[in-house]
Amino acid sequence: MLKPAILYKEEIEKAFAEQLYTDDFFLYSGYGICNSLPEIKAEDGQYQWAVLDQKNNLIGYFSYRIQLETDTVYNFGMYSFKRGNPYFGKVIFNKMEELVKAHRRIEWRMIGGNPVENSYDRFCERHHGKKHVFEDCTIDLYGNYHDDVVYEILKKYDHD
Questions:
Q1: How confident is the prediction for the chain on average, in pLDDT?
Q2: pLDDT of residue 83
């Protein structure tokens, strides 16, 4: 279930702080030298969610922005604090299905090699989207280069 992240601000910030210098946090932030935690706050156009399991325990974080002028959902942030929990993925993909139905354009990025890549590929294919791969765009703490992957789903409208 999704609840506004601001209600779980301290718990989310603590969970992220525990992950700060990990490879998983690199996959979330996209920067090998990133030491910045997400700022949980109420802001126009930004949606931040606490992902809770069936017992109302915090298991993750999900955020995105909506640009009303272009009806675009972008700048996604997803993080599971309980790796391997299938409920997290189910909640996220259900919300993404809602967003695809409600908006004209959806776009998100990820670091190549992220374990969720195959799921993103299938989701994008199901919605007739495109996947763009930019090779060796970012570097991790160990000096390894990673691809930057961009997904886009765009509703095509007939203009008569």
A1: 92
A2: 85
Q: What is the pLDDT of residue 141?
A: 83
Q: What is the assigned CATH class of domain 2-154?
A: alpha beta
Q: 41-50: list long-range contacts, CB under 8 Å, 24+ apart.
A: 41/6, 42/6, 48/4, 48/5, 48/6, 49/2, 49/3, 49/4, 49/5, 49/95, 50/2, 50/3, 50/4, 50/5, 50/7, 50/8, 50/11, 50/12
Using DSSP, state whether 25 is helix, strand or coil.
helix
Please state, in angstroms and rounded to a whole number, the distance separating the CA atoms of residues 51 and 58: 6
Alpha carbon dihedral 49, 50, 54, 59, in 10-degree steps, equals 130
Spatial separation of the C-alpha atoms in residues 155 and 7, rounded to whole Å: 33
Give the start-to-end residue ranges of the domains of the chain: 2-154
Q: How many Å apart are CA 119 and CA 59, to the nearest integer?
A: 19
Tens of pLDDT, residues 78-132: 999 998 889 999 999 999 999 999 999 999 999 998 999 999 999 999 999 999 9
- 157 pLDDT band, cuts 50/70/90, is low
- Residue 12 burial (10 A CB sphere; 0-12, 13-18, 19+): buried
